[in-house]
Specification:
Distance between the termini: 69 Å
CATH topology: Four Helix Bundle (Hemerythrin (Met), subunit A)
Number of helices: 4
Structural class: mainly alpha
Number of domains: 1
Shape: rod-shaped
Helix content: over 70%
Radius of gyration: 27 Å
Largest sheet: none
Strand content: under 5%
């Protein structure tokens, strides 16, 4: 009788051990899944930001080329460029909301500063030529993009090379 009892205890302990291991494995897998999903969301937020900033850079560069060379828009109408510009500014605002939730506070601060500086540059009448205004805007956007990419690489633990 005691041999049957000992075998039953062994089976019970094995069952409890297997149950514990299964529980720990599921917890580990769920934590890993959630971490990967969070990383993917952060990557998407960084991608949306850099895409909007790259679009702004391309449009501002095109406008500056037009001003310097006195040529019409290359491959686009002036209205299409203007629409793309404001669409990119809108996407930047939308990405800023996501960034405030998912990304480091430094990114949100950078975006707040950029949006404020762009708005100020829009109404700044101290520029002697439109090229000066475009140069300033290009520099603002490029500096913000470079800073966001650098912070993002560190945040997402991506290598530089």
């Amino acid at each position: 009788m005691s041999a049957v009892f000992i075998e039953a205890v062994k089976l019970l302990l094995q069952f409890c051990g297997a149950l514990y291991i299964a529980w720990r494995t599921v917890r580990w897998a769920l934590r890993r899944y959630k971490d990967e999903k969070h990383w993917e969301r952060k990557l998407t937020a960084y991608s949306e930001l850099t895409t909007a900033l790259a679009t702004l850079l391309n449009i501002v560069a095109e406008w500056e080329d037009q001003e310097i060379t006195s040529r019409p828009p290359h491959g686009f109408t002036a209205e299409a460029l203007r629409d793309s510009y404001w669409s990119a500014r809108q996407k930047l605002e939308e990405a800023r909301s996501t960034a405030m939730l998912l990304l480091p506070a430094k990114i949100a601060d950078l975006l707040d500063d950029l949006v404020t500086a762009l708005a100020r540059n829009d109404v700044d009448e101290s520029h002697r030529h439109e090229v000066e205004q475009l140069d300033k805007e290009w520099k603002l956007v490029k500096d913000a993009r470079d800073a966001i990419v650098a912070i993002g690489k560190g945040d997402l633990q991506l290598s530089n090379g």
